[in-house]
Amino acid sequence: MANPTAAMLVIGDEILSGRTRDANMHYLAGELTKHGISLAEVRIVPDVASKIVETVQGLSREYGSVFTSGGIGPTHDDITADCIAEAFGKTIGVRDDARALLQAHYDKSGQEFNEARQRMARIPEGATLIENPVSVAPGFVLENVYVMAGVPSVFQAMVASIMPTLTGGDPVLSQTLRIERGEGEIAGPLAELAATYSDLSVGSYPYQQNGAYGANVVIRGTDGQRVDEAMARLAELFA
Amino acid sequence: MANPTAAMLVIGDEILSGRTRDANMHYLAGELTKHGISLAEVRIVPDVASKIVETVQGLSREYGSVFTSGGIGPTHDDITADCIAEAFGKTIGVRDDARALLQAHYDKSGQEFNEARQRMARIPEGATLIENPVSVAPGFVLENVYVMAGVPSVFQAMVASIMPTLTGGDPVLSQTLRIERGEGEIAGPLAELAATYSDLSVGSYPYQQNGAYGANVVIRGTDGQRVDEAMARLAELFA
């Protein structure tokens, strides 16, 4: 059976302007792969409500689950929670349990729990909170959409807290052979190998190092014995 | 007048599996911003022909230009050129000028110009070549889609060669103020500032450093005087 599919939606002008280099996509990709969930598409969109709403609706229909990062803080450009509510036709308002978490946090640190901070307790109706052990303000899950923070340390903590709740598939096993020849030289036999092992994924990733070309050939699949077999054949071909 | 819009399409299983961290998106974002072109959306899709074709068609209709990276090498998983041809209903075949470039390169290096390498001369009808000073195999432009390599050094060289051919808008000017207070404290006044300067983009990007919270507030716009004014007001607010 095919593994469950997922999509990621990165929200934020700062990524698209080149100001910030996104780190969350690469992190999530690795975690999902380990968990046997296939990340099938990623989209990066700006802080534009109509775009976020329409993208969430599309991805939620197409994939088993959707993970978002960004736009859930206290400032005027944090519009993700409202957009998710709109995408599913839900109301949104400050929720008691989320407010209590934040209230306790700000009381303890002696900071004012002002209007802006209360915005972070706005949660769409019917959502489940995602714990944030780093900075308290929670993420949430609505339908099949997991809404998380953009700050990498917070995003990673949230991913850690949801991961055990996700239904994974068979872990994808991966083996890599580094071949010190140009891709053009290995392409023919490699295509035949890929055709023979069509139940596996055979990828070729070229590199250039000290002026020499080579390729990392990666064989991936859920059946360890098949991956081993294909790797042995690959090694024979390019010994 | 609004600046021209663009989208990027990153093609490759290795990005989605978490094996490789994409570097091209961040690079292109910075170059387009300098050139006054607004990167409005990014998508990352696997080496699946139907997905590539449908995504290229959608992005090409929605945005002024589309930039792709990945999938134009000699191996069996390099399917981008064929997908782009299909997306626009064009034929594709080995083209004489592209073949001549590659033939000369392999003759010079004493390597065989075999069938796999000839695949890199397959160019959709009506396309214009994009020069590749790093490893010769060209990219191409078809309609409003710029098709480039995934290897970062080659991608960057290709971007450098197309950039002068693109019609840019007004360069976007950007100023940043680092404010050593939590976002929750500055959010109220910041929202008012953003409303006053609604012709500019006012973004707040939180950070955490040595246990203290702060935010980089970035004001962006094409009118330098307005950006200066808004920055002066921002500095006053949080002096």
Automatic annotation (TrEMBL), chains A, B:
Keyword Cell membrane: no
The protein, known as: Nicotinamide-nucleotide amidohydrolase PncC
Phylogenetic classification of the source organism: Bacteria, Pseudomonadati, Pseudomonadota, Alphaproteobacteria, Rhodobacterales
The keyword Hydrolase is annotated on this UniProt entry: yes
Gene encoding the protein: pncC_1
Pfam families: FLAD1_M, MoCF_biosynth
First and last residue of the signal peptide: none
Superkingdom, natural source: Bacteria
Record keywords: Hydrolase
Enzyme Commission code(s) on record: 3.5.1.42
Residue ranges of every copy of the MoaB/Mog domain listed in the record: 7-169
GO molecular function: nicotinamide-nucleotide amidase activity
InterPro entries per UniProt: CinA, FLAD1_M, MoaB/Mog-like_dom_sf, MoaB/Mog_dom
